[in-house]
User: Fold this.
Amino acid sequence: MRVFVAAWVGSTNAGDELVFEALRRKLAARGARVAVVSVDPDRTREAHGVEAVPSRNVAAVHAAIRRSDRLVLGGGGLLQDETSHLNLPYHLWRPWTARRARIPFAGVGLGAGRLTSSMGRSLVRRALAGSRGVAVRDGESAALLTSLGVRGVVTAADLVLSLEAPAVEPADRLVVCLRSWPSRGRLLPMSLRWRQDLAEERWLDAVAAGLDEAAAATGLDVRFVAFHRGRDDVLHRRVGERMRQTVSFAEPEPDALPREIARGRAVVSMRYHGGILAAMAGRPLVLVGGSAKLGSLAASLGRGAVLLGRDAAAIRGVTRHLDAVLPGATDLPEAVERLRQGERGNDEVLDRLLA
Assistant:
């Protein structure tokens, strides 16, 4: 059986690559031949060993979908228009094409974020009509899709939770994963405006001061780990050059990222999958940001995690919050096991699709 995957694949964002690798393994275990749309087909073929279709070649993507027996939308946070008004049309025309060609499709490992317009909500509802199921990674996503009238919604968890955590002893380091965030303008995709969204000087100073204090209080060196090579590392170096404590930088390939995260005794992350990987390794974590997915993750991890706002005052207080989560590390294995159990909802929808 040939399965076409419609997601965000082939970029230098390691989180997205780990999500696809987890999905690829599930499909391969079920005997499926995988094809995927990719922004860098050569990179995707080399990294994952699958057929890759260039995302900019609409005719080729359309033909590849029609040659397939099934289509999977996901995983990842595809169902939102907060980062760009172009996001939903970009992703959703693919399941729409599958449905018109009478090719069964399903959503797997999806996140549904903010839908800021009635048009966006309508696009999601109409695109997912007729699916064989939609597995989402948290309860908030499930509630949103159900409120839109989407049927067959299953609350699962992030696909990355199906991967094995590396057996790595921690070093005396505090792993930090920062990221830029969307500005208010959404006419352009995030990929074209990330530089203007990096951060203002006051925020950079606050992050540097907060991390300096945390490093001094814990005796840990700061290790900046970039998820999005070529972007996160730019922000990391802008913060690092303002710091007094010892810092180092890493821009790992996706397959090396879990080990980099696990080498920290604690993790401070603005990246969702930084939090996922930290929890899988049993490392207490401070999540930073205002997104619903981070809030859901923090709530699911109990005493081993806390969520801070993105404002300068919150960042300056990171030391206090690290002190609070360090004793909660013992709770993380049980919390992660609950998430792993929930992640099997993705298998339920995949089995329904491929049956």
Observations:
- The chain has a mean pLDDT of 93.
- Residues 332-354 form the longest helix (23 residues).
